[in-house]
Amino acid sequence: MFLARSISCRLRPLPRLLAGFGALVFATALHAQGIDYQVRIDAPRQLENMLEENLDLMRWRGNPRVDLDQLQRLVKEAPAQAKTFIATEGYYSPRISAGLDTSGARPVARVIVDPGEPTVVGEVDLVLQGFVPFDQGSAPFDGAALRQRWQLPVGARFRQADWEAAKRELLREVAQTRFPRARLVETSATVDPDERRALLRVVIDSGPEMRFGELRIRGLKRYPREVITNLNKIKPGDEYSEAALQALQSRLQDTGYFSGVEVSADMRAVLAAEIEDLKDGDDDPDGNPATPDPGAAPGPTVLPVLVRVTENKRKNVEVGLGFSTDTGGRAQASYDDLNVFGKRMKSDLIYEQKRQTARVDFFWPTTPKGYNDSVGAGVERNDVRGEITTLATVAARRQWGTPLLERSLTLEALVEKREVPPQEATTTRSLPLTYSITRRKLDSLIQPTNGYVLQGQLGGALLPILTDEKFLRLYTRAQMFRPMGDAGTLVLRGEFGAVAAKEKLGVPSTFLFRAGGDQSVRGYGYRELGVRENGAIVGGKYLLTASAEYQYYFRPPWGVAVFYDAGNAADKVGDLKPKSGFGVGARWRSPVGPINVDLAYGHAVKKARLHFSLGFTF
Which of 377, 450, 454, 539 could form a disulfide with 443 if both were Cys (CB 3.0 to 4.6 A apart)? Predict the structure, then answer.
């Protein structure tokens, strides 16, 4: 009996021993491989995403060095971490709990967040220091406007990112005109969690007033100095303006003479002068002892304008291949010489299946008044829709303005040979003068999503000089972009053209109108819509087209589009019976502009056509 009881007592703890051994093996394995756990965060979506990206619980998940003890420590630390992160979003009185559930196959760490009410801005104390008085007749610094434009006003939700952005924008706004050395000398945000109010204080010191000095040019070797000086609108004594420096840099980049342009205020020259003054023991840059006047305001500091350029090679040859659904395959060779008798020469030789062009132009440096003058000559042959034209031109042009408002005046002498088989070829001479204007108001000149572009042309050959038929021509075009929600854009486009002449036959075909193609009425071929003449389609005296398109970028830069186009060209207004096309397209916002691939159905021709285009015209 005793023996049996003794055996019985020894056998009874065996399952426990085996279980303990299994736990030991499991713990050893966990320690070797790391514990596999889940994390569940219950919080508003915006906060949930932020905590998933920042909590140590998430960052250490999958790490082989995390064992059960370390996991428990991470869970314990999670509320304090979450509170710190949530405070950056303006929630300073949250209720946060965290726990670890080990009952399942995988431990589950849960973090529950109730952010409470957000903290709002209760008071803004914006203090301006410095900002010296200005000369009589000059505009004072508008501190009231600066306060009104402060980006984190009373009543706004207080977020750390918005607070930092508001300070940066305040400093940028002050530093971009007159005071480039402005600095923030004190910033503080005092938060009362109980009242959920933030009291903001910002002290900004203007530093010395700055004005522009002389122009200094570095890196110019091959080309005349006038290429830069004629484009410089900054005069010595002008108030410092970051916008003026950027405008000069943009104008120089557009000349084509330089591969790199940097325009800046030469702050190093000012600092060097200040160091020399300190060495001399006075504040007079001329080296004379300065007599302090306690009642006098300090004079402005002069900043030289420094232009650093990297010149393009004088001669450049380019060749290229391409394809367009309008004109077919394309081969091109270009030769560019930046200094031919002090002028820039550009020449192009282009071969396309439906059009061939040879042209050379000479460009003068931009004048001090902003005029860009050029002369050129060229030959162009078109074989489109049964009409063959060969056009020889000599032209003089003056352009002026900015990318937002461009204008030009062009005088041409042209001779055109026109063939519509089986008729005999005819030759037309003309001396037209054309005024063009383009107005742009867009959020981006390359990838517009909001704004508009307007273009107008008025011209003609009104004098009987080298002209077979007098005519007057009007052409207008408009394109508008409007955002539709966060990812959509509505694009509206329209154009109208009219030619007034006694006889159409003497008007060069290049001044008449046809429609159809990638940038016109999609669903129809290039210049397929016009006036029928002996089986060919030729230009008409009137043009009217319109288009509506909706673009949706579901995963930027990728998007889709639906569109409807309509329009036609005719010799009489009453014959402008619109032909319609509609379809769908794919969009990609490439670095050089939007790439469009459209499949359009032409209702009048009852067939589908593929269209490909890069960017948008204007």
Answer: 450
As given in the structure block, the two tokens for residue 78 are 């999670």
472's tokens: 């007057």
Distances (CA, A) of 72 to 34, 35, 102, 111, 490: 13, 11, 11, 13, 54
DSSP β-bridge partners for residue 357: 350, 380
Q: Report how far residue 123's alpha carbon sits from residue 119's, in angstroms, rounded to the nearest whole number.
A: 12
Taking the C-alpha atoms of residue 240 and residue 179, their distance in angstroms, rounded to an integer, is 7
Q: What is the 3-state secondary structure (H, E, C) of 531-565?
A: EEECCEEECECEEEEEEEEEEEEEECCEEEEEEEE
Reduce the DSSP state of residue 503 to 3 states and report it: coil
**What does the block give as tokens for 234?**
């900054």
Question: What are the extents of the domains in the chain?
Answer: 1-31, 34-114, 120-205, 210-289+300-311, 316-363, 364-614
SS3 99: strand
Which CATH superfamily includes the segment(s) 120-205?
membrane protein fhac (3.10.20.310)
Backbone angles phi, psi at 44, to 5 degrees: -55, 150
Run means of pLDDT, 10 residues per run, the chain, 618 residues: 32 38 41 75 88 89 87 92 90 90 90 91 90 58 82 91 92 89 93 90 91 93 91 92 91 90 83 64 45 51 92 93 89 94 94 96 92 97 96 97 93 97 94 98 90 97 95 98 94 98 95 96 96 95 98 94 98 95 95 90 96 75
pTM, two decimals, is 0.68
Runs of H (alpha helix) within 211-283 = 226-229, 242-253, 267-280
Give the rounded distance of the alpha carbon of 165 from its chain centre. Answer: 21
* Letter string b/e over residues 77-101, b meaning 16 or more CB atoms within 10 A of that residue's CB: ebbebbbebbbbbbbbbbebebebe
Q: Taking the CA of residue 530 as centre, how many other CA atoms within 13 Å lie in the half-sphere pointing to its CB?
A: 27
Helix (H), strand (E), coil (C) string for 115-160: CCCCCEEEEEEEEEECCCCCCCCCCCCCHHHHHHCCCCCCCCECCH
Class of 364-614 in CATH: mainly beta
Cβ atoms 158, 118 nearer than 8 A: yes
Q: Note the CATH architecture for domain 210-289+300-311.
A: Roll (3.10)
Residue with tokens 């673009």: 551
According to the model, what pLDDT value does residue 547 have?
98
Q: Are 557 and 588 in contact (CB under 8 A)?
A: yes
Helix, strand, coil distribution of the chain in percent, nearest 5: 20, 45, 35
CA distances from 386 to 459, 530, 607 (A): 28, 12, 21
